[in-house]
Amino acid sequence: MSEFRFELLETRGRLRRGRYHTPHGTFETPCFAPVGTYASLKGLTPDQVRDTGSELILANSYHLHVRPGAERIERLGGLHRFMGWDGPILTDSGGFQVFSLSDRLRIDDDGVDFQSVVDGSTHRCTPESVLTFQRQLGPDIAMVLDHCPPGDAAPALQREAHERTLRWARIARDLHDSWGGSSRGQAVFGICQGGIDPELRAASAHALVDLEFDGYAIGGLSVGETKQQMAVALDACVDELPADHIRYMMGVGMPEDLVHAAKQGVDMFDCVIPTRHGRSHTAFGKDGTTLKLRNLQYADDERPLVAGCECYTCRNFSRAYLRHLSVSKEMLAGTLLSIHNIHFLQDIMRGLREG
Ligand SMILES: [Zn+2]
Questions:
Q1: Radius of gyration over alpha carbons of the chain, in Å?
Q2: How far is the CA of 313 from the centre of ligand 1 (A)?
Q3: Interval 22-70: pLDDT, tens
Q4: Are 233 and 240 within 8 A, CB to CB?
Q5: DSSP-based three-state secondary structure for 284
Q6: Exposed, middle or buried, 307 (CB in 10 Å: 0-12/13-18/19+)?
Q7: pTM to 2 decimal places
């Protein structure tokens, strides 16, 4: 029997409080998942990640397939054991990276040829191959391959990408079913595309629901559209998705976007922003502000990053010390700032859950 289950505990307006059960434990929703692209939350140990309040983490199956190889990770006991994280893990299919980072792309109806951003080698991704990599890696949640066009793509390309995404989703769903579905210990989520066109978004979500995935993701947003366009496209998806399945908005991590989308009925988020900010000497502050720690203004500032923040960094260190680490290019700077940034977003999610 499948160990995956979404429990909808409470609805306030359109905001949903829930709990998702996986073979590696549960996570409370709305939930934010920090990203460890290469099976590493850059600069943080798994214990440090857990201490930020994170219950679910992300890795990228495409990057791990290129290096060190999905087969190798399988031989070494799977992704949980390999990276020392015993909680829930989701792997992205890599579709977004393939379409957004590769210079040389050749897309056909069966898959996509591309040049690796890691080492320049050429690869081919198909709906079947990305699911096979993820079966080898063994995360709790795998994602289908989708065609994610640029945010400013012409309507004709958006429609083509939407139709291709659905064809690929059907192939992935059939393969997942042929392996025994989620009862083999891995859930597979479909991904809604359609750009900023609400009709295309609704059609995409509707068709995915007909395919009966374990959960539903909303991709291709927060890629340069206005906040208003994002909200309209998101509404169009959410209206079509079943209340008893988890909803995941991909690649969104700015505090105000998390709050808005959760209040539109999204349960799950992921983003590299908190750790990327941390490595570039930037900390989340109150009310949508950020602190650039290399600035001279913090040289004698004895206050924590955010007054009242309970994270390890704010409980122990001053802005002055963090500035010193940043200016001195100490490794600890990125670690401590990433801890604060992830914790900061987890505080927001906790606030949304508690109401
Ligand atoms: Zn803090």
A1: 20
A2: 5
A3: 999 999 999 999 999 999 999 999 999 999 999 999 999 988 998 999 9
A4: no
A5: strand
A6: exposed
A7: 0.97
- Residue 12 to residue 35: CA distance in whole angstroms: 28
Residue 265, C-beta contacts closer than 8 angstroms, at least 6 positions apart: 14, 15, 16, 238, 247
CA distance 283 to 244: 36
Choice among 92, 197, 214, 267 that is catalytic = 92
pLDDT at 146 over 90: yes
Percent of the chain with pLDDT over 90: 87
Rounded to an integer, what distance in angstroms lies between the CA atom of residue 215 and that of residue 31? 14
Q: How far is the CA of 300 from the centre of ligand 1 (A)?
A: 18
Is 257 catalytic? The answer is no
Which pLDDT belongs to residue 251?
A: 95
| Sequence spans of domains, the chain | 5-271, 279-339
Q: 5-271 belongs to which homologous superfamily? A: Queuine tRNA-ribosyltransferase-like (3.20.20.105)
Residue 73 CB contacts under 8 Å (≥ 6 apart), including other chains = 39, 64, 79, 82, 136, 137, 138
**One-letter amino acid of 194:** G
Number of H helices, E strands in the chain: 14, 16
Half-sphere exposure of 40 (CA within 13 A, CB side): 9
CA 340 to ligand 1 center in whole angstroms: 4
Quote the CA–CA distance of 81 and 294 in Å, as a whole number: 37
* Rounded distance between C-alpha atoms, residue 27 and residue 134, angstroms: 21
Tokens matching residue 191: 């991904």
CB 204 within 8 A of CB 162: yes
Question: Which tokens hold the place of 59?
Answer: 């890795």
CA distance linking residue 247 with residue 236, whole number of Å? 13
Distance 279 CA to ligand 1 centre (A): 15
Catalytic residue among 214, 267, 270, 347: 270
Note if 267 is an active site residue: no
- The strand pairing partners of 188, in sequence order, are 142
How many Å lie between the centroid of ligand 1 and the Cα of residue 284? 9
Ligand 1 mean position, distance from CA 306 (Å): 6
